[in-house]
Design brief:
The protein is of the alpha+beta class. It has 20 helices and 21 strands. The strands form 5 sheets. A 7-stranded mixed β-sheet has the order 4-7-2-1-10-13-12, with no helix packed on it. A 5-stranded mixed β-sheet has the order 15-16-17-19-18. The chain has a 4-stranded antiparallel β-sheet with strand order 8-9-14-11, with no helix packed on it. The relative contact order is 0.08.
Length: 671
């Protein structure tokens, strides 16, 4: 009896100890999650934006936005004496309070170790604001012609070729070049706007249009978004645009010349929204889902602005094989837009979760085999990014910027490494339990901001409630330090083998073995493969470039020219052109130039430029670049010039991995 009593006492003490540790660690991590966003100058612990109102005129002649931003602010301290806002490449003209009294201000350029973060505006209040007091400040300003956020396109850079065009790209810290504000994901605010544009052009914002009217020369459009968003999700596009409904809640926006094709390709948007809504178990709160297919010069793949997703025209192929970009951006409606990383050190809680949801949605939409192929096809890009950043925090899930722009750390790492972490956790607790954990994560953090510590606290609590001591044991078996803080590849990937992957690779090996004398007996099966498997086939050839000959490449072209030479299918033609470069198949140079002048997305152009340089054809690369220079977006031009002009030796070329450029916001090169 005594033995039983002692055993019971030990069990009770152990239980209390574990529970105490559980509660204590939860509290400590919640405390540590109250971090300052190192990428903002704004005094967000003293004052918070509740709403901002933009009243702007779009001037295509001067390539500027001009007008005012009125911020509704709430004091978070007993005596608020100044408001500090992020404000970069802006001409500040005047600052007034809600009674139209002039306010003193300073526009400050920081020390050199913070120059990548831009400038800030210090506004001095006439009277200190008390804690909880709400007040307005209006700043009159105009944007600079030379800046990185607003892209001003000439007519020849558009599909129609007749009217100018503009679009923004605010992620990560570029909204401070559009307006003076608290440019941090830690602050979410509602916003409204009145935009004046030339009469022939139509604006869209990441908000609902509430009114529109015209006079003799101008169009005046009013917008409002009543769901709080971080500043990086502000977006504007202006052009000769049409909107077409493709579902109950979904619409496509683009130029008239491509509206039919785009609407057809994206006709399944409503189904995608419903699939994700069903998996997540939380309603789509934004009302409409609209996707803008931008001009072909758009340099990146997509951007998840609420109510106004941006997408490259490279997703419009004709067979819906590239519309997975849309599933990813739709998933951001919950993870990223609704539940947002509190700062850019925790970017993976946006992108890792979104990649996970994207692939869960794709399982339903395209099948589990497609998802496995996507994992395999995406892995080389992930490992290239790991090599690019090496043994630095930029190859971890917790990058440290030390005054640099968060753009410097953008890569596939937070997407794929974050995805593999979540996939590993799901393997421990089971798919059904993990779906419930995700659902509760979203519902309990909706409209808020989160960090890695918040997720760990949530996960520990959920695993305890669902699985008891076994759940706690599983939780503490996860090596979060290695997963989150350690640079390098994911500790565990859990990528099972696939017959389709091996089939694609084996077909490539057979082509090499036959040396171009004939085709493999079952070569036509290539046509039946998923596009992702066709990519794996071509990547296998590129991985064995030493064994390639022109004869082999000609044989492959002969067998699949209708697929490989289709300029719209960038995933395939980009790789085929690299094969042609490697094997000196010079008759394809004109096709190469035609292709490079048809798409501005860096993911599909930078690798071709690099292949030309790697194979001693730098002169051809420069010739092609100069021929299409005016077509390329400034971001792309800078990237191409870097590799074509300033970088020549192979060791330096290796440092400019295209994995850095194929992501959606990369703007600076780290030497």
């Amino acid at each position: 009896v005594r033995c039983v009593q002692e055993t019971g006492l030990i069990a009770l003490v152990s239980t209390l100890a574990v529970l105490g540790l559980f509660v204590g660690l939860s509290y400590n991590e919640q405390e540590s999650s109250r971090v300052i966003d190192e990428s903002t100058f704004a005094n967000i612990h003293e004052v918070r934006t509740q709403h901002f109102f933009l009243n702007l005129t779009v001037n295509f002649d001067t390539k500027t936005l001009s007008g005012s931003n009125t911020l509704t602010l709430q004091s978070q301290t007993r005596r608020l004496q100044q408001v500090i806002l992020d404000a970069y490449h802006l001409e500040i003209k005047q600052v007034v309070d809600q009674n139209f009294n002039m306010l003193d201000y300073e526009h400050v350029t920081p020390t050199s170790d913070q120059k990548d973060l831009g400038q800030y505006l210090v506004i001095y209040l006439r009277e200190p604001a008390k804690r909880g007091e709400i007040f307005n400040i209006t700043i009159f300003y105009s944007t600079a012609k030379e800046q990185d956020t607003i892209s001003w396109l000439e007519p020849e850079q558009t599909a129609g070729g007749k009217y100018p065009y503009l679009y923004s790209q605010c992620e990560s810290i570029l909204c401070r070049q559009v307006a003076p504000l608290q440019d941090t994901p830690a602050v979410k605010a509602t916003y409204s706007a009145v935009i004046r544009t030339p009469k022939a052009l139509r604006p869209f914002l990441s908000a609902n249009e509430t009114d529109s009217y015209e006079d003799e020369d101008f169009r005046y459009s009013s917008f409002r978004n009543d769901i709080p968003i971080p500043s990086y999700l502000f977006a504007i596009v202006v052009g000769r645009l049409e909107e077409r409904q493709v579902g109950k809640r979904t619409a496509v926006i683009t130029e008239a010349e491509q509206i039919d094709e785009c609407a057809k390709e994206l006709e399944d948007l409503e189904q995608m929204v419903t699939i994700l809504e069903d998996y997540i178990g939380y309603p789509y709160v934004w009302g409409a889902y609209k996707i803008v297919v931008l001009p072909p010069s758009f340099p990146v793949g997509g951007m998840e602005n609420p109510l106004l997703t941006f997408a490259s025209p490279s997703i419009i192929v004709g067979d819906k094989s590239n519309v997975a970009v849309a599933i990813h951006e739709i998933a951001h409606s919950w993870t990223g837009n609704l539940v947002t990383n509190r700062n850019w050190n925790n970017f993976w809680v946006n992108e890792g979760f979104t990649r996970f949801l994207e692939r869960k949605g794709a399982e339903v939409f395209s099948g589990k085999e497609y998802v496995l192929l996507d994992e395999v096809a995406s892995y080389p890009e992930f490992t290239a990014a790991i090599r690019q950043f090496g043994n630095t925090t930029f190859s971890s899930l917790e990058p440290h910027f030390d005054g640099r722009s968060p753009d410097d750390a953008f890569s596939t790492i937070p997407y794929e490494k974050g995805y593999f972490l979540l996939k590993y956790i799901a393997s421990l607790v089971g798919e059904d339990h993990f779906q419930g954990i995700l659902r509760n994560w979203i519902s309990s953090n909706a409209f808020g901001t989160v960090t890695t510590s918040d997720f760990k606290s949530h996960l520990r609590r959920e695993m305890w409630q669902r699985l008891g001591f076994r759940g706690l044991q599983q939780f503490y078996s996860i090596d979060f330090k290695t997963w989150i803080q350690q640079p390098g590849e994911a500790p565990i990937t859990l990528m099972p083998g696939s017959p389709l992957v091996e089939e694609a690779k084996q077909l490539a090996r057979e082509y090499i073995k036959l040396g171009g004398e004939s085709s493999p007996e079952d070569y036509q099966k290539f046509r039946k493969l998923f596009m992702k498997a066709q990519v794996i086939f071509l990547d296998e050839l590129l991985d064995n470039k030493q064994a390639l000959t022109r004869k082999i490449v000609e044989r492959i072209e002969q067998d699949f020219s209708d697929l490989l030479l289709n300029i719209k299918q960038c995933e395939l033609i980009m790789r085929f052109l690299r094969l042609a470069i490697i094997t000196n198949y010079n008759e394809k140079n004109e096709l190469l130039s035609q292709y490079m002048g048809s798409i501005g997305r860096m993911r599909y152009t930078q690798p071709v430029f690099q292949e030309l340089i790697d194979n001693g054809k730098k002169d051809l690369a420069i010739e092609v670049f100069n021929r299409h220079r005016s077509f390329y977006h400034p971001l792309a031009r800078r990237a191409f010039e870097l590799s074509l002009i300033h970088i020549s030796e192979p060791t330096r070329q290796a440092e400019i991995s295209y994995a850095v450029f194929c992501l959606k916001k990369k703007k600076r090169y780290i030497h």
